[in-house]
Design goal:
The structure is a homodimer. Helix content of chain A is about 45%, strand content about 15%. With about 220 residues, chain A is α+β, with helices and mostly antiparallel strands. Among the domains of chain A are: about 5-65, Arc Repressor Mutant, subunit A (Orthogonal Bundle); about 145-219, SH3 type barrels (Roll). In chain A, the strands form two sheets. Chain A has a six-stranded antiparallel β-sheet. In chain A, a hairpin with a 6-residue loop joins strand 5 (about 180-185) and strand 6. The longest helix of chain A has 25 residues, at about 65-90. The interface of A and B includes residues 88, 107, 110 and 118 of A. The first copy, chain A, binds a DNA duplex (30 and 30 nucleotides) through helix 2 and helix 3.
Chain lengths: ~220, ~220
DNA sequence: CTAATATGTTAGATTTATCTAACAATTATA
DNA sequence: TATAATTGTTAGATAAATCTAACATATTAG
């Protein structure tokens, strides 16, 4: 079992690696965690003996497969918690990060399995970030909300957040489905409505309520 | 801010003190926490310098007012968590203790305030144990479920668990209210129904569903 | 009331996670 | 390319929470 400190190093390695094609420097980690380099250095030796990190002096740090899996499971707990707090406890997104930073270290598979169940086994969180499954596997895309895209871009619908029946019915009526490609014609400056076009629909206006719930990828 | 270890000592002191009129020995604590006496001894010195415990060599340990308050707040978090897990996440009572032991250490007043709100500000948990309020104040009785009482005993209704409208309506119809005194005439051996008598009701049969939700005190 | 037993204390060691100071290797730059 | 700047490592110190061994005080029993 990993300590709280070890878990934080694993998580940091995982997220930093995502930005730097799998390689992380001691200095990056040190700054990211606000922990001095010698401390990071010795923790890396420790994680190496635990086969979680692959480390050679003066070379970049890499997570082993085991390390990646354990990190993904912590991130899973973090994202499930955030989503649970927002969806089931009515917190605002800006409030949940700090709480999730603590709850992600709770040791209880049942607790997170229950959250997962109550949330309907989501694969993507409402920021468009993937939620690893209980084996640490995840979709390797980071999606963007339609509401965050810029005028002129061509995007593909990748996922939908908070699939209430009413929302799904709405999408059906508008003939919006996964994989659909659409072009952003313009964005209404006043209320941030997004005006899009796609096959059989030369111009549709999507309110922020809708564009916040559609996750897309650039094409 | 207290460390996780310190919080566990405070909680243990509080619960042990409840059984021994406020005084706890180093040995009791040591056995209860499964931590060796010298460790407990030095932690008590530390908590004394933090004004949480009053300690003199070879004398029993006592929590200060400050210590009692901080302990009560941890117990509040524990009991709210247990209740939340059962009522809102469909856990069984036997599953929640371990999870609550971890969640009680989460630092986030907002998180527990939200649980409290979603549970309707309960003052007593479904075991009949009081839940301290956010100032650490609590009702100083431990109630028993009616279902746990024995034949012949005279009891007073002290609290009601899980106050659904249907249940309150039922109690109204039967003229059962807080403060009502009733005698337990007998207990049906087969299904554990409780047969009671009280003013204007010479004999009422209460099913386990009901007797599990009525908390009483002996008179 | 003494001796045996139980309880409590002190001293010093260990582990984990952190730090600072000093030194070494690598990378960037003049 | 030589040197300066950055990055990484080693050595040793510190604080928290635990332990064991040895000793001291209290309590209980004969």
């Amino acid at each position: 079992m990993n300590s709280l400190a070890e878990e934080n190093y694993l998580k940091a390695l995982f997220t930093l690696a995502a930005k730097n094609n799998g390689e992380v420097s001691v200095n990056d980690l040190s700054r990211h965690l606000d922990i001095k380099m010698p401390t990071v250095n010795s923790m890396m030796k420790k994680l190496t003996t635990k086969k979680l990190v692959y480390y050679e002096s003066y070379k970049p740090l890499k997570l082993t497969e085991k390390g990646k899996k354990e990190a993904a499971l912590i991130i899973r707990k973090h994202r499930l918690t955030e989503m649970y707090l927002v969806e089931k406890m009515n917190f605002g997104w800006e409030q949940v990060h700090e709480i999730a930073e603590q709850i992600e270290h709770i040791k209880s598979p049942e607790f997170f399995a229950k959250m997962d169940e109550l949330l309907g086994y989501p694969q993507i969180d409402p920021h468009g970030s993937p939620i690893p499954d209980k084996n640490g596997k995840m979709i390797w895309k980071e999606y963007k909300k339609l509401s965050e895209c810029t005028k002129g871009s061509l995007v593909k619908i990748a996922a939908v957040i908070n699939t209430s029946n009413d929302f799904l019915k709405f999408l059906n009526e508008k003939e919006i489905h996964l994989g659909l490609k659409m072009k952003i014609k313009s964005i209404e400056p006043f209320d941030k409505s997004v005006i899009v076009s796609y096959p059989k629909h030369a111009s549709e206006t999507l309110s922020p309520t809708v564009s916040e719930r559609l996750l897309v990828e650039k094409v």
